[in-house]
Amino acid sequence: MKMRKVLLFLTVLIVASTAYSQPKFEFIGSSEKDWGKVMQNAGPLSTKIKIKNTGNKLLEIYGVKPGCGCTTAPIDKNLIDPGEVATVDVTLQIEKDNGPIVKGIEFTTNDPVNDRISYELKANVKIPIELFPKFINMGAIFVNKEMSGRLVLSNHTNKNIKITSVKLTDSHLKTNMKKGQVLKAGSHNAVEAIVKTSVKDVFDAKIILMTNSKENPIIEIPVRGMVGQPE
């Protein structure tokens, strides 16, 4: 009888020990990385994710899966002993992005609480020189009538950009942009196209701004419309 009680007591201890022995997945710091405003040509972006096993049993990382092909996230080890740390080297390509982005990385583990857990990557990607809309749409252009259209040219960089020359690819096109004009850092500038022509056809021309910027030496602004009958 005493032997049975001893065996029962030992069994309870073993079960209790097993029940409270488990791995615990934790990010060191936040579960996201936010780069804030970044220039599109400043990529790729990179960061390191630190993972710690704060449990009392071996933590196994079964998978590290980025949510898109623009992200790579190799981990330096998949088995993390209690108290140890693993590192994930993250690289995010942004050369095709424009505006706010949110990307995810999913971790699958043997942690019973966090068997699937996500890490978020955030950024607000800006094109250094942005046209909105992408071109000046003149729409229907009346013959021999001066008509105008506009768009906004934004300088998202932290440097002033000076226009060194202005080229128009059609003799019937004029613009408000001038040689020597400065596009201030962080500014939004109205670009106007003025067209007056007697040629009935598709109007497709460009305003070409040459600048003193090594990163953005040429800014091309398409101007499109259809020249029709007199008003």
Describe the structure.
With 231 residues, this protein is mostly beta strands. It has two domains: 23-126, Immunoglobulin-like, CATH 2.60.40; 129-227, Immunoglobulins (Immunoglobulin-like). The protein has one helix and 18 strands. The strands form four sheets. A five-stranded mixed β-sheet has the order 2-9-8-4-6, with no helix packed on it. A five-stranded mixed β-sheet has the order 11-18-17-13-15, with no helix packed on it. Strands 1-3-7-5 form a four-stranded antiparallel β-sheet, with no helix packed on it. A hairpin with a 6-residue loop joins strand 17 (202-211) and strand 18 (218-227). The longest helix has 18 residues, at 2-19. The chain starts with a helix and ends with a strand. Mean pLDDT is 92; it is low at 12-16.
CATH homologous superfamily label of the largest domain: Immunoglobulins
Strand order of the largest sheet: 2-9-8-4-6
Strand fraction equals over 45%
Output the number of helix runs: 1
Known CATH architecture of the largest domain: Sandwich
Task: Reconstruct the topology from this structure.
Blueprint: H1 2-19, E1 25-27, E2 32-39, E3 45-53, E4 59-66, E5 71-72, E6 79-80, E7 85-92, E8 99-109, E9 116-126, E10 129-132, E11 136-141, E12 147-155, E13 161-168, E14 173-175, E15 182-183, E16 188-195, E17 202-211, E18 218-227
Parallel strand pairs: 2-9, 11-18
Antiparallel strand pairs: 1-3, 3-7, 4-6, 4-8, 5-7, 8-9, 10-12, 12-16, 13-15, 13-17, 14-16, 17-18
